[in-house]
Amino acid sequence: MASQAVIEEPQVEVTAPRWSPATRIAFRFCVLYFCLYSLSTQIITTLIVIPNLDLPDPASLPPLRPIIGWTAAHLFHLAVTPTFFVETGSGDRPCDWVLIFCLLVLTIVGTILWSVFDRRRQSYAALRKWFWLFFRIALAGQMFTYGFAKVVPLQMPFPPLSRLLEPFGHFSPMGVLWYSIGASPAYEIFAGSAELLGGILLVIPRTRTLGALICIADMTQVFMLNMTYDVPVKILSFTLILLAILLVAPEFRSILNFFLLDRTAEPTAKTSLFRSLRANRIAAIAQVVFILWLLGTGAYGDRVAWKQYGGGVPQPALYGIWDVEQQTIDGQLHPPLLTDSSRWRRILFDSHDLIIFQGMDDKNVYDRVAIDARANTLTVTPRANPNAKSTFTYARPATDRLVLDGVMDGHKLHMELALYDRNKFLIVSRGFHWVNPGPFNR
């Protein structure tokens, strides 16, 4: 039964042995810290999946926001600006590090108080199975999120036209990693499949240890890439490693015996969530429904995103890299005040609403564009001055030829452009070869 695959089968309750004081203190600390971290970050928002609802960062809301703000200003003397909590795509912002500090302080204080008021308890075997269930689902949720984003693939896109023209030396370390993986969708899909595998095995009780070990391997690779390529997800990836290690900690002796000591790995005693068979079945069904909901919404959401802003978006009517062969301003081929920044070398159309002007100085200007394929016109809206719109008419005498005429900044412009063949880039056309007479390393 599917429900029996997601939750432990009812078993006889076994009297838990007395835990050592160090084990009890470690348990309290881990439960408090990972619960606080999960409730303060994207881990909890990932588990609350509601279509068409984007939940805010919990750390940007009370009571965490004032606590983080006060700590940042008074202990670390950081300027808490209005943008301090703004989502930037980085998980290593100053407020994120301050959050970790606050969580550690709260955890230490909470552990001390818990240890004082609950010092007579001999073990937390019953409590542990509930928290470990939550941690398994929390970790699996992150594996599903990042796994689907790679399987689609969406997280690392294939290098856009502007990146194909970018000199390699101008790439940031993160850009090198992002677009090298994006240039190989097969590898990105493989990496995402490994993350999905770890998450799926993690939520099945009989394979949860294997799933946690796979998660450790997956997240260790991710963490090392984040550290060596300066990807700002270092805190989260390292925390997920710790969370996976915490989940396999009860199985440590069996793992050690099996892999290193060549001894018999005794199965770890497992207990069901409830004493009642009916209650366990209801819990199993609830877990199955919830996991299927996470998988279904994750797959559907990323598939929709793929069609909206990923590789599944149709190309714009003028898609391509257009080399400017001739440009006249107010009827003059080379006006005396024409500078390298105002004279264009190329124009790129990579998406429906974006036009990129590349100057003779190789600097790019990114503006908004609206293309009307029926009227053969395009309207350019500068990002720096949205009110200064310019309208051009265009003609394509041939598939690889483009003529633009219009007025920009009070000057009449005429441009004749030629389409650059995208397949001339080796990263686009080289592909995969089973047989290689020699290394093709260029």
* Count, helices: 14
Q: Which overall shape is indicated by the principal axes computed on the Cα atoms?
A: elongated
Global Rg: 28 Å
> Could you state the order of secondary-structure elements as H and E?
HHHHHHHHHHHHHEEEEEEEEH
| Spatial arrangement of strands, main beta sheet | 1-2-3-4-5-6-7-8
Q: Give helix % range.
A: 40-55%
Unreliable runs, pLDDT <50, ≥5 residues? 1-5, 7-14
Instruction: Work out the number of β strands.
Output: 8
- In whole angstroms, the N-to-C terminal distance is 54 Å
**Portion in beta strands:** 5-15%
Overall average pLDDT: 90
- Largest sheet at a glance? 8 strands, antiparallel, barrel
Structural class: alpha+beta
Protein architecture, described:
This protein is of the alpha+beta class and 442 residues long. It has 14 helices and 8 strands. An 8-stranded antiparallel β-barrel has the order 1-2-3-4-5-6-7-8. A hairpin with a 5-residue loop joins strand 6 (390-395) and strand 7. It starts with a helix and ends in a 13-residue tail after the last helix.
